Amino acid sequence: MRQLKGKVKETRKQKKERKLDNLETQAKIRTVVLPALGVLAVFLVLFVYLKTRPAVLA
């Protein structure tokens, strides 16, 4: 069997499926990853704030 030279053409169906997969992945990124990063950022800011504030003398 001979191998084809160059890139193999993508059919319309394959291209459509790939685009749908990319849209699903982007939706997951927006609904899972970004909120998780937001929570981590809030914890980091809170941690730094609590560690750098002056001690309260009782």
Key features of this structure:
58 residues; single chain; Single-pass membrane and coiled-coil domain-containing protein 4 homolog; transmembrane; transmembrane helix; mainly alpha; membrane; rod-shaped; coiled coil; 0% strand
Structural account:
- Pfam families: DUF4519.
- This protein is mainly α.
- It has one domain (13-53).
- Helices cover 71% and strands 0% of the residues.
List the helices and strands and how they pair.
Blueprint: H1 12-52
Summed up, the domain count is 1
Question: How many individual helices?
Answer: 1
Largest sheet: none
Work out the radius of gyration. Answer: 25 Å
Broad structural category: mainly alpha
First CA to last CA: what distance?
85 Å
User: What's the overall average pLDDT, rounded?
Assistant: 89
Q: What is the β-strand count?
A: 0
Helical percent range?
over 70%
Q: Strand share of the residues?
A: under 5%
Summarize the structure.
It comes from Drosophila melanogaster. With 58 residues, this protein is mainly alpha-helical.
